């Protein structure tokens, strides 16, 4: 089999002086049991910048080198294609590029990002000592992304040209008087511009270029421009559980919330409307009452359907997103029909728009933020099944920066339970035999919350859960409290909690556990037995530290629920400090960790709650994340130095998942933690 290798210049080389030799090695190589037949010199072909230079090249069977006189290669960017066959007819092909960054040549420059619906400027310049008076240039671009608005002459030149529907711009530059900018092509970026599937960038490519002087005309190509698509606004959505309220969030490119952006649906929903049933109605398979009934729905049900009735029928989509049917026009409240081809509304001062129009059926849909003639990318979002219940589940307490005056609680609810609270009171205000405390002594605080989409089982269908967290401060030390979480009509039980004392003389007592992997057989029971024995043996335990790998697959919600069930015997009264393990971070595991737990937020900027510290009596605890990137490790190291500089405690204890030095084969380099 023939093999082809670029020798000089190497692929992607940038030469700072004139090319002194052009060599490509073409040699036969054994392939399996086939004998080598040798290279067929007559089957070698060489293209440079699309020009066939085979006749000017020479191949030596002795050195196996294909050579070309360097004088035939001008300054600038070059694309090379070499093809060859062995004498048995087996083909080979090599394509590569290099740049001779010396001498008089054309170059192009442009921003790395083309912003939707804005101008994108590509400037063509002359580099090196000028000898040319004019230039002819042909550019290839994606006409679905860019449209030529005009060509701007620079430095006294005259630039004129034409473009076609295939994305080819040809223009002449005359009157070149000096090196430097010759002309700038101003493209208008399409508002629908997007990178295609598998694309990481787009190109503006110089297909042809010449430089002409009184003495000669020669070819010169500039290196292609690579660019990505950017947008003046960014759109995100939270709340995609079926029948939940969605919050669309718009920010400018610098991350600031943007008020006044219109939110539009795109694609399939843009052609539909929200219709509301005015009475109980049958949904028929077709527009005839003799057809089979696919569903019977109560009055008040909202569905996606056609904006108008057709011959007395609305076609509708059922909540499963897969079944369509027909309801009679008389069953629809005509006054409440909401066409979805109009703006859903504008974002407020927080850059947010809340709506209940976008989650009426399972499926993948698109939305876009629009501000005048500018817009965000058309964002896809998937409406999924909601997880959880209105009633709080999996109530957990967490360590705080000061356990003598703070209480941190987290719990889950259905995405539809949008507003949750924590209520608390001193246990002393709870009358003996009463079912609750004196109402006047109860404090109510609204919780923070965030939704998360993840699979119930690894790689399975996704659903959405709401994580709620609350941090209460200003508590009295060494004091018993009662608390509950939830909302009106959906409260949890009242739980007991006691703050620590603030005396540095008090012995610190905690339980350390790691790698619980509760997915394993009897994992839940084993974990509960382990913790029960620890607390029975050490009844003065103040908190628990978990060293990571709490679950086996971080992206499987069922495993997190199993962990929380296993922790239910202590989690409501014994706070936990936790760090991430390599199993926990799989898929959406990191988001579950950050959104579901309410840990101290005193860690490194942009990395809070992954790393943090807290004090208990005369001990300082530091929790680090061993699952970060090198950059994140550097952030942690810088933060750790500052944290320890301010530490005046007698004892300092650090927790992280991976050991600094590995002794087990297959665990990677031993210098990971340095």
TrEMBL record:
Pfam families for this protein: Metallophos, Pur_ac_phosph_N
GO molecular function per UniProt: acid phosphatase activity; metal ion binding
Stored Gene3D superfamilies: 2.60.40.680, 3.60.21.10, Purple acid phosphatase-like, N-terminal, SH3 Domains
UniProt superkingdom: Bacteria
Occurrences of domain Purple acid phosphatase N-terminal (ranges): 392-499
Entries under InterPro entries matching the protein: Calcineurin-like_PHP, Metallo-depent_PP-like, PAPs_N, Purple_acid_Pase-like_N
Calcineurin-like phosphoesterase domain sequence ranges: 510-665
Annotated keywords: Signal
Protein name as annotated: Metallophosphoesterase family protein
């Amino acid at each position: 089999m023939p093999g082809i290798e670029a020798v000089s210049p190497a692929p992607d080389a940038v030469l700072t002086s004139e090319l002194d030799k052009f060599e490509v090695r073409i040699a036969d190589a054994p392939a399996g049991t086939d004998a080598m037949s040798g290279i067929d010199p007559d089957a070698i072909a060489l293209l440079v910048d699309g020009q066939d230079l085979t006749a000017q090249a020479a191949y030596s069977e002795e050195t196996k080198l294909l050579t070309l006189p360097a004088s035939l290669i001008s300054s600038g960017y070059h694309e090379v294609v070499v093809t060859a066959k062995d004498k048995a007819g087996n083909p080979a092909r090599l394509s590569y590029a290099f740049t001779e960054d010396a001498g008089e040549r054309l170059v192009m420059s442009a921003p790395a990002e083309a912003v939707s619906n804005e101008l994108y400027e590509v400037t063509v310049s002359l580099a090196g000592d000028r000898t040319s008076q004019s230039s002819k240039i042909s550019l290839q671009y994606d006409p679905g992304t860019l449209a030529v608005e005009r060509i701007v002459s620079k430095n006294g030149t005259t630039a004129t040209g034409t473009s076609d529907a295939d994305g080819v711009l040809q223009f002449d530059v005359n009157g070149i008087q000096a090196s430097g900018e010759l002309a700038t092509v101003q493209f208008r970026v399409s508002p629908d511009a997007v990178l295609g599937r598998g694309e990481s960038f787009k190109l503006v490519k110089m297909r042809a270029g010449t430089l002409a002087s009184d003495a000669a005309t020669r070819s010169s190509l500039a290196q292609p421009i690579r660019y990505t698509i950017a947008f003046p606004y960014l759109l995100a959505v939270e709340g995609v559980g079926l029948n939940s309220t969605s919050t669309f969030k718009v920010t400018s490119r610098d991350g600031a919330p943007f008020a006044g952006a219109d939110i539009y649906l795109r694609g399939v929903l843009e052609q539909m409307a929200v219709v509301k049933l005015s009475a109980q109605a049958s949904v028929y398979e077709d527009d005839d009452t003799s057809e089979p009934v696919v569903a019977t729905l109560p009055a008040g049900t909202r569905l996606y359907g056609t904006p108008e009735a057709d011959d007395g029928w609305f076609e509708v989509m059922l909540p499963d997103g897969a079944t369509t049917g027909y309801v009679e026009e008389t069953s629809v409240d005509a006054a409440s029909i909401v066409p979805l081809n109009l703006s859903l509304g504008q974002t407020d001062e927080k850059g947010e728009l809340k709506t209940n129009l976008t989650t009426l059926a399972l499926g993948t849909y698109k939305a876009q933020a629009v501000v005048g003639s500018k817009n965000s990318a058309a964002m896809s979002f998937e409406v999924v099944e909601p997880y959880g219940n209105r009633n709080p589940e999996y109530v957990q307490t967490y360590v705080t920066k000061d356990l003598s005056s703070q209480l941190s609680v987290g719990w889950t609810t259905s995405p539809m339970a949008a507003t949750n609270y924590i209520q608390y009171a001193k246990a002393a205000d709870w009358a003996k035999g009463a079912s609750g405390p004196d109402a006047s002594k109860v404090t109510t605080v609204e919780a923070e919350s965030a939704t998360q989409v993840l699979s119930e089982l690894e790689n399975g269908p996704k659903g959405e859960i709401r994580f709620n967290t609350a941090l209460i401060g200003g508590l009295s030390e060494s004091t018993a409290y009662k608390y509950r979480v939830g909302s009106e009509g959906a409260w949890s039980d009242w739980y007991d909690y006691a703050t620590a004392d603030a005396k540095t003389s008090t012995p610190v007592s905690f339980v350390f556990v790691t790698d619980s992997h509760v997915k394993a057989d009897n994992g839940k029971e084993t974990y509960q037995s382990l913790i029960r024995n620890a607390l029975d043996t050490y009844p003065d335990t103040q908190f628990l530290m978990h060293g990571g790998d709490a679950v086996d697959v971080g992206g499987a919600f069922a495993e997190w629920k199993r962990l929380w069930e296993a922790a239910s015997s202590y989690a409501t009264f014994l706070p936990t400090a936790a760090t991430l393990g390599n199993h926990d971070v799989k898929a959406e595991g990191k988001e579950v960790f950050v959104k579901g737990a309410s840990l101290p937020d005193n860690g490194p900027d942009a990395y809070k709650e992954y790393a943090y510290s807290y004090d208990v009596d005369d001990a300082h605890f530091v929790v680090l994340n061993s699952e970060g990137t090198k950059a994140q490790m550097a952030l942690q190291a810088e933060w750790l130095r500052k944290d320890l500089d301010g530490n005046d405690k007698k004892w300092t204890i650090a927790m992280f998942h991976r050991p600094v030095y590995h002794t087990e084969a297959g665990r990677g380099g031993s210098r990971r933690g340095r």
